[in-house]
Amino acid sequence: MRSPISENDIVTILPLQLVSIREVSDDFSMTFFKVDKEMFLDIMSGLGKITPDFFFYMRKNFLYSVNDVDRNRFLGFCRTIDLRGSNDDPVFLRETILHLLRIYYWDFYVLFQQTTSAKKRPFVNTNKENIAMRFAMLVGEHHKTRWEVAFYADKLCISPVYLTKVVLEVNGQSAHEMIADYVVIEIKTLLRDARLDIKAVARRAGFANQSSLSRFFRLHTGMSPTEYRRTIHVTR
């Protein structure tokens, strides 16, 4: 999909979404921020139940033309992130930035819900995109208990090999990686609840015990659940 970018356009590219700039004018400039996949998953873990179809909508609707008021609002948002990043206490900085970025993505989610409610039609068109979205919806429903690609392929009445191929082609990551991402978001969401001990988090996330949870979480995030919890419940 080719889209010209003009003055007052806001472009939002999701992790693993590939883009390229073919040519630029002499007067082209942009203000931007970027987040890595780990931070993106942290952002999503604090937004509640974001439905999977939102991400498919965002992939197709990555460019918005806004008026001067909304442009200045976005530039002010970027300045706020820059200011907080330069002046905030380092102990609390990461969580501060995460909360600001959640506002940005939440605004897009609200717009998505309003747009889909008004149009009353899905945004997924091709057969492969439909398979990928149905897979994502199933993962959102069953990821606490089922991690096998074969389970989801059976639900979709296709082979695991074809499902893996389609998901990789549409999303840029494998079916196994998508399932793991959903589980990681679920764990991070639970870890944000200080009332739950790690054993309770493991149980609610569908793990047999605390050890298996810790192994999985460290494999996919590089830290233990306890270490991650320290980054979100910061104290001196």
UniProtKB/TrEMBL annotation:
GO molecular function: DNA-binding transcription factor activity; sequence-specific DNA binding
Keyword terms: DNA-binding, Transcription, Transcription regulation
UniProt-listed InterPro entries: Homeodomain-like_sf (IPR009057), HTH_AraC (IPR018060)
Residue ranges the record marks as coiled coil: none
Domain HTH araC/xylS-type: 133-231
Transmembrane segments: none
Pfam family for this entry, one: HTH_18
Name of protein: Helix-turn-helix domain-containing protein
Species assigned in the record: Alistipes finegoldii
